[in-house]
Write a structure and sequence with these properties.
Layout: H1 10-16, H2 33-57, H3 71-87, H4 91-94, H5 97-106
């Protein structure tokens, strides 16, 4: 929680980080170092989201919902889906009712 806490998490602080000494001229074609790092983080995050999405959607986690020892995984999957939906970044995808229903059914 310390890493991703809203308003106070380290990740939030890093994403807002843009020191004046590392800023580049507006005419510069190469992004600043902070912009490059943030871009790479979003690329990694997108890959992570796609991987989790595929696991859940394709039901490649058979029997997870039936195993009480895996309750944490189910809970975290539902939390992940709800956070992704609330973020608004995938609004067009989650606007389809069947998408959410199939994800929850996969869990």
């Amino acid at each position: 929680q310390h890493l991703f806490a809203p308003q106070t998490g380290l990740f939030q602080h890093f994403m807002l980080w843009d020191p004046a000494e590392l800023q580049v001229d507006l005419n510069e074609t190469q992004p600043s170092l902070p912009a490059q790092l943030k871009t790479k983080i979003f690329e990694i995050g997108e890959g992570f989201v796609q991987s989790i999405w595929e696991l859940i959607r394709s039901n490649k986690l058979p029997g997870v919902a039936d195993d009480s020892a895996c309750f944490q995984l189910v809970s975290q999957s539902l939390h992940f889906i709800s956070t992704t939906i609330r973020s608004g970044y995938y609004k067009s995808l989650f606007s389809l009712h069947n998408t959410i229903a199939s994800l929850v059914q996969g869990i």
